[in-house]
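Thread: "does anyone have the structure for this chain?"

Original post by V.I.:
We have the sequence but no experimental structure in hand. Need at least a predicted one for the grant figures.
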Amino acid sequence: MHLRALTTNDELPLSVLLDSTFGGPDMYRFAQALRDEQAMAMERVACDETGAMIGYVCCARMVAPEDWWVLSILAVSPSHHKRGMGRELVVRGMDCARREGAKAVIVIGDARYFSRVGFSKLAASHLETTMMPEHTLLYPIAPGTGMAHETLIYPDAYAHLSEDDLV
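Reply from O.Q.:
Generated one for you, tokens below.
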């Protein structure tokens, strides 16, 4: 798997990947909304040996706390499920977040899955959020971010997602 930054030439394959992974255009529209809002912090695509797009990971900047990111979309082509690619995308995405200066990364998702790559429900236990607190996990990067008392404010694009989109 080769991981690289998203380019403008990737829009059609990204749309196909997200539509096939999530069963419709909502996630592609969500990514577009994050870009339109200028909230996108990082977008990476995974390609196979032929150059075909087989995965995607993106993070957006949180409105608050500043310098925190949120893992917004993780997609693996259905033909590549159960091969560890999702885990690898998250690990490499968190490495990118660390290099780019994010102090912490939030995810709304399955605690069993995301805890295997360093996200923690306990580390998020003092965060205030109205968006699915029972599924909110934290990947602390900077000292003091684990167990922090912060109020989470997500980019506006999150207001259009349903709980089914998030978990």
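V.I.: this helps a lot. The radius of gyration is 15 Å.
O.Q.: and The domain at 2-166 is CATH 3.40.630.30 (Aminopeptidase).
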